[in-house]
Amino acid sequence: MEPLFENITNGDIILEFSYLLSAIFFVVGLKLLSHPETARRGNLWAAGGMLLAMVTTMVLHRDGGGSKIQTGNLAIILAAIALGGVVGAIIARRIKMTAMPQLVSFFNATGGAASALVALIEFSNPDNQSALVTLLGLVIGSIAFSGSMIAYGKLDGKVKDIFARWMTYVNLLILAGILFLLFYVLFGQMPPETKQILVYLLLAVSLVYGVSFVMPIGGADMPVVISLLNSLTGIAAAMAGFIYQNQAMILGGIFVGAAGMILTLLMCKAMNRSLINVIVGAFGGGAAGVDKEKGTVKEVSVNDAAVMLYYSSKVVIVPGYGLAVAQAQHVCNEMVKLLEANGVEVKFAIHPVAGRMPGHMNVLLAEADVSYDKLVEMDEINPQLPDTDVVLVIGANDVVNPAAEDDPSSPIYGMPIIRTHTAKNIIVMKRGMGKGYAAIENYLFFDDKTRMLFGNAKDSLQKLVTEIKNL
Hints:
Low-confidence stretches: 1-6, 283-290
Number of helices: 17
Shape: globular
Number of strands: 6
Distance between the termini: 90 Å
Mean pLDDT: 84
Order of helices and strands: HHHHHHHHHHHEHHEHEHEHEEH
Helix content: 55-70%
Strand content: 5-15%
Largest sheet: 6 strands, parallel
Number of domains: 2
């Protein structure tokens, strides 16, 4: 009988230990990412773990025959890493903060594509012992790729939504086709050439499903969809890890998949909706709810708004996507400092799904060096709003819409909101009376306590800063 560890070398032990250490780095990184103040360090920890896994794999990995990575292959790997690193760094440096959700979707798509290509190549490998895992990696990676690209297009305004009830049945039909093909390839008796053709067909149908799955989902649900697609990419990466029996890929994929799914479910809870309802409900599709008497819109001058803010005791700012579009976070923080110099207490109310991706507002305000202790989550800020002198809404819409509480016919009914309508005074900064991503009327704008300050958020805030300085 052969000794159990006869073929295990010191290099194998070091390699496996490095994977374990990389996993620890990933866990620490994820933990640090849970708070804005430590998120930067969390990224560095996670990147360090990935770097460690890559270096030790290239140096210590041996194939089944005990051979190192060939010099030619190693050169290709290093060239690919260098090219990807340079391209990624250039994109990350040039991207605008408003386009950060698009960047996340695009990068997520590349991860799904990589996993799908690994599965496609390895399926025909005679040494591959995991046909089911390989096909699952192909399907999930393909869906993550095409779905993320459609999400990118929708966020960038290049792809229009398709709101139609029949899309649900189309998606169910395509999903049934994917499952049929998957089981037929696994268990059907056919020549290898036919099986390979069916694998390519499975790839094509999965890509189509990724498109049709994301197309009907309304813009208000895009943060949830991005998180779900991110989870799928992690699962696909884990499948690729099983194919290669690489513990670092398996653990990294599981971490991404689990974290993405947890975040997805948390955001669904924040919207008081189930994940199935998000996927098939087409929230944001323009359902109007019951028409009510709107009332009168009351405008406020910049001077009057400045006076209201300057002589308040407590001010709460509710940021939204409009703040990001206008790139007004820096001038907003300048205004906050002026108010605080006059003894005004200022906080930012952060809704879990404000913006176009999870944590979008936190990242935006952190870029402007807004102190982390000023960022208050929705559940904590809502009880404080009745005692707030002025709530300043900057570019937010659906997350402050009272229809979520008082209009059962509204598509956002039951969604937890920042209860700005309970404050003593409300100033809403918008470019016009346009509707939000849910495409429904916001009756907060017609509230007796609300005053509208129309204009580009950055220009309006700059004027407010000037007026406050003159007070």
